[in-house]
Design brief:
Blueprint (H helix, E strand, L loop, with lengths): L8 H26 L4 H23 L8 H22 L7 H19 L5 H8 L7 H30 L1 H6 L4 H19 L8 H4 L2 H6 L6 H25 L4 H25 L10
């Protein structure tokens, strides 16, 4: 089934792009879950949709924009949304989670308005919403590659700092870490990964790739580092399953990816529940 992906350039690009997204998305998702900020990905994905819709709207006025990849406008809006979330978290310092529904609602509202003004949905927009293997072009592949490298470098450089901040933000601030700056960089990274992943997973489903593999990994991992390993493993299995089955069965890969991730999560929960019910084999101590 997978041999066909090496016979055509666009399928090979989609496969390798999916492999990269299957690693970096769950990696960032680990920090989001630990920090209880999983919905940030959802908010930024809707802001990305706003950028895509705005591009299509502009393309109806400026015909030359039709040849420009909407990915760039989506990325720009995602980064702007990340900056706004960071500012709102400062404004509502005691209710930081309020920044997420504010940006999510803004993204949905503006997105619907722009889509309506651009004469509604079209095939391209549906591909962005739910993912498409055929939609991954060479430019998208290069963009995803660059984002993957950026994420890998920054995770390597700031792993200890983000680890510290994830578990004890106040103590990290007391110790002198530039928490606000590091938070901003991390949120921008999340925005870039979401925008890059929308071709494969789809804007409406990409946040699931940052949370479901992590939720499954929590059932197996015995340390923080193991969570990265299991999250990437489950993310890769979900993405490859979605891409391969989505292509052969003519289904939206994003939906299949999420379903595969849900199946892995349910199996993990069921396995742990079954293991906890097993009777202990240790000999009883004599009373």
């Amino acid at each position: 089934m997978i041999e066909v992906f090496f016979q055509h350039d666009f399928l090979r690009q989609a496969l390798f792009a999916g492999i990269m997204i299957g690693i970096v998305a769950p990696f960032l998702g680990v920090f989001l879950v630990v920090k209880r900020m999983s919905l940030v990905a959802d908010a930024l994905s809707h802001i990305t949709l706003t950028g895509i819709a705005f591009h299509f709207l502009l393309a109806t006025v400026f015909i030359g924009l039709a040849d420009v990849d909407p990915l760039y406008m989506g990325m720009a809006f995602a980064v702007i949304g990340a900056l706004f979330i960071d500012q709102l978290r400062k404004v509502y310092s005691h209710f930081k989670e309020l920044a997420i529904p504010i940006m999510l609602s803004t993204g949905v509202g503006l997105g619907v308005v722009f889509i309506s003004m651009a004469d509604g949905f079209n095939t391209d927009l549906f591909a962005y919403l739910f993912g498409s293997v055929a939609a991954v072009g060479q430019t998208d592949f290069y963009t995803i590659s660059v984002v993957t490298v950026i994420v890998a470098v920054l995770l390597t450089l700031f792993y200890k700092e983000w680890f510290f901040m994830s578990f004890d933000e106040e103590q990290a601030a007391v110790s002198g870490l530039p928490g606000k700056w590091l938070d901003l960089v991390f949120t921008i990274l999340v925005a870039l990964v979401i925008a890059a992943a929308m071709r494969i997973v789809g804007i409406l489903l990409v946040s699931a790739l940052m949370s479901l593999p992590v939720a499954a990994a929590m059932q197996w991992a015995k340390s923080f580092k193991q969570m990265f390993v299991y999250s990437a493993l489950f993310g890769e299995v979900s993405v490859l399953t979605g891409i391969i089955l989505g292509f052969h069965l003519d289904l939206a890969p994003g939906g299949v990816i999420v379903v595969a991730a849900v199946v892995i999560l349910l199996f993990s929960l069921g396995w742990q529940k079954l293991r906890n019910k097993r009777p202990s084999l240790a000999p009883k101590q004599a009373s």
